Inverse folding.
């Protein structure tokens, strides 16, 4: 059995279009049985708002040939007013009102079971490799310092939890050997927006959470802030070295991809491709272990963790395009064999 990498791994992954093969918002929005407006109304209104609220693309500041990470972060943050209008419109019509958390979880699981949502190949094999004891097939390692977190702009963490449990059940049933522990999905932390519950009835009010007081997890900058909150501070790094991996598929993931020690890209999102080209940032197909600079306690995440990424040198970084999570798992296994 291959040995694990010498440093703990902190794996972060986007949900919509990364962990799943496509966006799941339509699936989530189909839960309310008698909405006041069809969800197509909100989609059309959002698209109409793009013409008014779409921020201007950043351009290089002379004498630079490329835009900087901080320029791109500022551009992505400028989507906040657009997202706010969208959220407040959905809240005004109480589209997600009078739903119990258990219904959201069941709807997520059901959406996987009926094929509406598909989780990408290799996800659960990767989770098992990182979190389960290498010496036991039926228990989680109590000494493992690896961790997995989902960071998403999705509107319901309960729905994501349901998708995790539903996809895990399908995967476990497909195994020829006894399945891994049923607690495996619960070992993944989910960081996304939530549908606010009424304190008296315990069902949803139709409002969506505001993680940052004035807004929720709406943009790329918000996802980066969540990622920062889950990592040890630079001051404590000498005692908390780890290999940080982020897996994403779109511009909303770009700051997190840049912040991570290793950033994996799934798919060929055209907007992400254009953004990286504007920055002079390479996306390399495949990810041989030898192509990545040496990873050790002295080189990992040695930065001030500036939230505008002013400390990131794009000329020394690259993103790595992979086909699915099986490619990520194979890379980690190969890394552990060096």
């Amino acid at each position: 059995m291959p040995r694990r990498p010498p440093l703990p791994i902190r794996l972060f992954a986007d949900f919509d279009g990364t962990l799943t093969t496509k966006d799941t918002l339509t699936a989530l929005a189909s839960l309310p049985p008698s909405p006041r407006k069809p969800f197509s109304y909100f989609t059309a209104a959002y698209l109409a708002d793009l013409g008014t609220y779409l921020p201007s693309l950043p351009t290089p500041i002379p004498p630079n040939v490329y835009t900087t990470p901080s320029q791109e972060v500022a551009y992505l943050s400028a989507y906040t007013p657009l997202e706010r209008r969208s959220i407040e419109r959905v809240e005004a019509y109480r589209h997600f009102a009078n739903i119990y958390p258990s219904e959201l979880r069941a709807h997520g699981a059901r959406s996987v079971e009926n094929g509406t949502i598909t989780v990408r190949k290799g996800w659960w094999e990767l989770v098992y490799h990182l979190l389960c004891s290498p010496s036991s097939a039926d228990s989680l390692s109590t000494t493992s310092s690896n961790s997995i977190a989902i960071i998403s702009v999705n509107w319901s963490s309960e729905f994501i939890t349901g998708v995790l449990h539903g996809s895990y059940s399908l995967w476990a049933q497909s195994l020829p050997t006894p399945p891994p522990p049923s607690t495996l999905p619960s070992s993944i932390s989910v960081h996304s927006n939530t549908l606010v519950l009424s304190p008296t009835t315990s069902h949803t009010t139709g409002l969506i959470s505001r993680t940052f007081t004035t807004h929720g997890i709406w943009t790329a900058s918000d996802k980066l802030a969540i990622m920062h909150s889950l990592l040890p501070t630079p001051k404590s790094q000498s005692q908390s070295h780890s290999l940080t991996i982020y897996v994403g598929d779109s511009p909303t993931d770009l700051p997190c991809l840049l912040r991570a020690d290793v950033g994996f890209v799934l798919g060929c999102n055209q907007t992400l491709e254009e953004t990286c080209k504007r920055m002079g940032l390479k996306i390399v197909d495949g990810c041989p272990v030898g192509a990545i600079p040496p990873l050790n306690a002295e080189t990992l995440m040695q930065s001030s963790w500036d939230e505008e990424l002013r400390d990131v040198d794009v000329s020394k970084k690259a993103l790595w395009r992979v086909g699915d999570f099986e490619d990520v798992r194979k890379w980690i296994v190969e890394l552990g064999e060096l």
